[in-house]
Amino acid sequence: MLRFFSLRVFRALLTVTLVVTFAFVVLRMSADPALIILGPEAPPEVIAAFRKSWGLDEPIWVQYVDYVAAIFRGELGRSMRDGRPAIELVAERIPATLALTLPALALKIAIGIPAGIWASLHRGTFVDRTVMAAAVAGFTVPSFVLGLVLVLIFSVQLGWLPSGGQDTWIHAILPIVTMGVGGAAVLARFTRSAMLEVLGQPYMRTASAKGLPWARAIRDHALPNAAIPTVTIVGFMVGTLIAGAVVVESVFSWPGVGRLLVVAVSNRDLAVVQCILLLVAATMVLSNLMVDFLYGFLDPRLAAGARAGGH
Question: Whose CB among 126, 147, 239, 269 lies 3.0–4.6 Å from 264's, allowing a Cys bridge?
Fold first, then answer.
């Protein structure tokens, strides 16, 4: 079990390193921050002084070494726009993003998993077809399209809800629903597939043949075994809480991390973009790591298999 977890931790650290390196190189190759921030009309000596003050005149490998060293010192750089620490700018936006993403995640789980279980227990019926049709619709409609449709209906036509902003909790309803619908559809589809696979296993037929009540067989055997693939999807959703808010926050003018990322990318504010990408990568890696740990406890055979494969 220790070998299983150690291997997962090593892969997680390697993934974060690769993401940080890729983002660092791509951001510096895409455009010159000095020209974007100061403008192409700025005098050459001003542009040169700006590059020197931010270390942009150094070779890229020197900039990378300095950046990694700063990370180990707990420094994530400063915004090229106002000179504030990038981590402060990002930290200010995290509560607003979590105010959307956590309720949206709860909505996904509360709707998607029960809908998938219900559909699997009524396979081939009207209930099953209705749930799957709704899931396909919710999965295929892009979040920005759904958000605009909700604004058109509930804000423009009916006037029930505000179309954007963060003044009251009512402003969060449409963004939360927008993010929750697609995730609930994905969870419903995967939960149904996992349940159908488990329901077709020999041990379910054996339990029924031994006289075990069907409801108890579902509770004691089907649900625990179907939990593993479902945990995978939920873990992925936890990992994409911040990244998944980019589009929705832009549509609803919500002042969260996702909207800050869009602005920072357009302004080539390197430290802020790198800080957000590092946060997103760490969140995704930690969520996947937690899923791997849950795998080891839900099904110790996975850890045993990893240990055997190592030999």
Answer: 269
Name the residue with tokens 């909790």: 169
Q: Which residues have CB under 8 Å from 225's CB, separation 6+?
A: 198, 201
State whether residue 61 is helix, strand or coil: helix
Two structure tokens written together for 221: 């055997």
| C-alpha closest to that of 138 among 178, 176, 196, 103 | 178
The tokens for 136 are 């396909």
- The candidate with the shortest Cα–Cα distance to 121, out of 135, 131, 134, is 131
The pair of structure tokens assigned to 113 is: 């998993």
Q: Does the pTM exceed 0.85?
A: no
Q: Going from the N-terminus, what domains does the chain have, and what CATH number goes with each?
A: 94-255 (1.10.3720.10)
Q: What is the pLDDT of residues 188-220, one digit of tens each?
A: 888 888 888 887 777 777 777 777 777 777 777
Place of tokens 């759904």: 146
